[in-house]
Design goal:
There is one protein chain. This protein is of the alpha+beta class. The chain folds into two domains: 1-35; 39-209, Porin. It has one helix and nine strands. The protein is elongated and about 55 Å long.
Length: 210
């Protein structure tokens, strides 16, 4: 009788352990599918942050005091290999304030459209460096008889961040960007316009797949 009870207990333990091991194996496989930091295929990204803008006229001139306002960017492109992504980016800084002299609201902006490259120095890490070149527009829109003023010029973009995988196809990236604009200013007798926006923000990237 004792032998029979021990045998039954052993068989019961085996039966209970088999499903447990199977479930654990499935969970391990599921996690393994999500965790590798492999980058591939088409991607798109949107970011938002706080941007500090400053400008000056003429190359040897002094930079004006900076002013902070929301900064946003939207980018998309393709992945050449796990250490290089290429794409296009629209980057915008917008500042709205009330001008006491004119009595109207004034919306100042710097908007750039650029071709960009995002480089990952270490394949297994999310650290990246970003750079781009393109065109930009610095302008002011006045609600009143003053209308809108602005000019188009050239833009350069530099930045860095860290890409953190939060899902199979989703990443979140704390990011720092510097957007630089230069152009000829017809209204300024002392030279060309230089403008820059330094942004600290976060980007959300979706990678649909190959």
């Amino acid at each position: 009788m004792r032998i029979t009870m021990k045998t039954l207990a052993a068989l019961t333990a085996v039966v209970l352990l088999i499903p447990t091991e199977s479930v654990l194996a499935q969970r391990r496989r599921g996690l393994a599918d999500v965790t590798p930091p492999e980058r591939h295929g088409f991607w798109l990204s949107a970011g938002v942050g706080a941007g500090w803008e400053s400008y000056k006229f003429a190359v040897p001139g002094n930079w004006a005091p900076s002013q902070m306002a929301p900064s946003v960017w939207f980018a998309l492109g393709g992945t050449v290999n796990p250490q290089l992504r290429l794409g296009g980016e629209l980057n915008a800084w917008v500042f709205e304030n009330f001008d006491e002299e004119s009595g109207f609201n004034v919306v100042e902006s710097l908007v750039g459209g650029l071709l960009t490259a995002q480089v990952y120095p270490a394949r297994r890490l999310g650290l990246f460096l970003k750079g781009g070149l393109g065109l930009s527009r610095s302008g002011a829109d006045i609600e009143g008889p003053g209308g809108s003023t602005g000019e188009t010029g050239f833009a350069a973009l530099g930045g860095a961040g860290y890409e953190i995988r939060v899902g199979r196809n989703f990443f979140i990236s704390p990011t720092a960007n510097l957007l630089y604009h230069w152009s000829g200013d017809r209204d300024a007798p002392d030279g060309n316009l230089r403008e820059r926006v330094f942004t600290l923000g976060v980007a959300f990237t979706f990678q649909p797949g190959r």
